[in-house]
Design brief:
Elements: E1 3-4, E2 7-11, E3 14-18, E4 27-32, E5 38-47, E6 50-55, E7 67-74, E8 76-79, E9 86-89, E10 105-108, E11 119-120, E12 125-126, H1 131-134, E13 139-140, E14 147-149, H2 155-165, E15 177-186, H3 188-201, E16 207-213, H4 218-221, H5 224-237, E17 242-248, H6 250-263, H7 277-285, E18 289-291, E19 297-305, H8 314-322, E20 325-329, H9 331-335, E21 342-349, H10 365-389, H11 396-413, H12 423-434, H13 447-453
Parallel strand pairs: 9-16, 14-19, 14-20, 15-16, 15-17, 17-19
Antiparallel strand pairs: 1-7, 2-3, 3-6, 4-5, 4-7, 5-6, 8-10, 11-18, 12-13, 18-19, 20-21
Helix pairs in contact: 10-11, 10-12, 11-12
Length: 465
């Protein structure tokens, strides 16, 4: 291990040092301050005679007299099943006053996307207990389905609800279930809320929690999701767990990338973010999935807050390209007191059709979801018309759709954060709402399902009405 005292510059979270031999990219570095404190870092860039090092604990207290030691290996995560039930900081160190973790081995955190040829196509339903997701935007085992939210909205409550309630159907459960929760740049108040909920509900016993707080170094945020995903890969593909990975908040992660890029004086891309942000995000998101011949799986739910609620912002825009849909948390529904305030119309699960139906959820699931979507969309359009002409100017048919839209929000989407619905309960609620409408309006549902589930509660409305 060679030691240098050749620091030439300190810029934000970066330290630049001269070297006289090749240094590997991503190599771990120990930096000793003149006061004797040791900080860890990682080689971010290496060229002839000069390396850029990102310091995990921040560069406070460092000066040009600091000593730099190159360890000769990349950052590794100590992995073991004993991690379940533990709380770690953003760099993987235990912070829960628990016993020492004895790892089975140390695994590199860089990881890589699953080879497309080796992927098993995701097609098994995961029940979250949230009707707006299970019924209308179904999550499938091995999928990556982000939650798009905005500052001040209760996306954390939704994340906790999913972490508590997520499960696979008992009849198809060959493996154990685990949750990996990676928090990046959250406040101490949010951290306390997460931990109180995990401990109160007992969810911590099957979870591994990584906590990077807002006052922790931004550089650490670039490491936290990789540590979380490395742990998930170990549990899924070596211990046969079905792992749900929840990452919040990816916006804070991308802000850390931008801060590091500015310190490196890189040419910025859209809105100041690095041009390689798409590749960087893809390296994280594509670590979800199933592998042929393996019983375990990794399902990802990244959460991000859209700046100014702008879905065209680079972070949600790029995330939407890489992932398989999105769940939208809506400020208008939130202001009405709807919990959780999920807007099902712009939300989408691209793998939903493969994870529902006979033997997975219920044979009528697809038809019910399509008809609910169509009816709610028509009700939403009519709300705009009511603002112009008034409700009295609408036909009886149109008024039924307006009533449907109101009840859909109040009875289907609204359920609170402690209610855990089975899929049969969700679909039964859907049929109750569809029975508000005349049978001839339900043109997206098969006749066999109408005969079985439809209960008309009003006389049919003719076109003349």
């Amino acid at each position: 291990m060679k030691e240098y005292k050749t620091v030439t510059e300190i810029s934000g979270p970066l330290v630049f040092a001269e070297v006289d031999e090749p240094v590997g990219y991503d190599e771990i570095v120990e930096i000793e301050t003149p006061s004797g404190e040791t900080k860890r870092g990682q080689v971010l860039e290496t060229s002839d005679g000069l390396v850029a090092i990102q310091v995990f604990e921040g560069t406070s207290g460092l000066d040009r007299d600091a000593s730099v030691r190159f360890i000769g290996e990349t950052l590794k995560m100590p992995v073991t099943e004993e991690l379940l039930g533990r709380v770690l900081d953003g760099s993987g160190e235990p912070i829960d006053d628990g016993p020492e973790i004895v790892p089975e081995r140390r695994q590199e955190i860089v990881g890589q996307a699953i080879n497309p040829y080796a992927r098993e196509y995701p097609e098994e339903f995961i029940r979250t207990g949230v009707s707006a997701i299970d019924g209308m935007n179904t999550l499938v085992r091995g999928q990556k389905l982000p939650i798009f939210s905005s500052s001040g909205l209760p996306h954390n409550d939704l994340a906790l609800q999913i972490a508590r309630q997520a499960a696979v159907p008992e009849e198809s459960e060959e493996s154990e279930f685990a949750v990996i929760f990676g928090a990046m740049g959250i406040t101490q108040e949010e951290a306390n809320e997460f931990m109180d909920d995990f401990e109160r509900t007992g969810a911590l016993e099957r979870s591994v929690v990584f906590m990077n707080l807002a006052d922790d170094p931004a550089v650490e945020r670039t490491v936290t999701p990789r540590l979380a995903l490395t742990t998930a890969e170990y549990l899924a593909f070596e211990k046969d767990y079905h792992v749900l990975v929840i990452l919040t908040d990816m916006t804070n992660y991308c802000e850390a990338l931008r801060e590091i890029g500015a310190a490196r004086e890189e040419v910025p891309g859209r809105r100041g973010y690095p041009g390689y942000m798409y590749t960087d995000l893809a390296q994280l998101y594509e670590r979800a999935g199933r592998i042929k011949g393996e019983d375990g799986s990794i399902t990802q739910i990244p959460i991000l807050t859209m700046p100014s609620n702008d879905i065209t912002h680079p972070i949600p825009d790029l995330t939407g390209y890489i992932t398989e849909g999105q769940i939208i948390v809506d400020p208008d529904l939130n202001s009405q007191g709807i919990e959780p305030p999920i807007d099902v119309l712009p939300s989408l699960s691209r793998l939903m059709d493969d994870g529902i139906g006979e033997g997975l959820t219920r044979a009528d699931h697809s038809d019910v979801a399509n008809q609910l979507y169509a009816a709610y969309a028509e009700g939403e359009d009519l709300r705009d018309l009511v603002n112009i002409v008034g409700r009295e100017a609408l036909s009886e048919r149109d008024n039924k759709y307006l009533d449907f839209a109101d009840r859909f929000e109040e009875e289907f989407i609204q359920q609170g954060y402690d209610t855990n619905y089975e899929i049969d309960e969700t679909l039964s609620t859907g049929w109750e709402l569809l029975s508000m409408l005349p049978r001839e309006e339900l043109n997206r549902v098969g006749e066999e399902f109408l005969d079985q589930y439809y209960e008309e509660d009003a006389e049919p409305v003719t076109a003349d009405d």
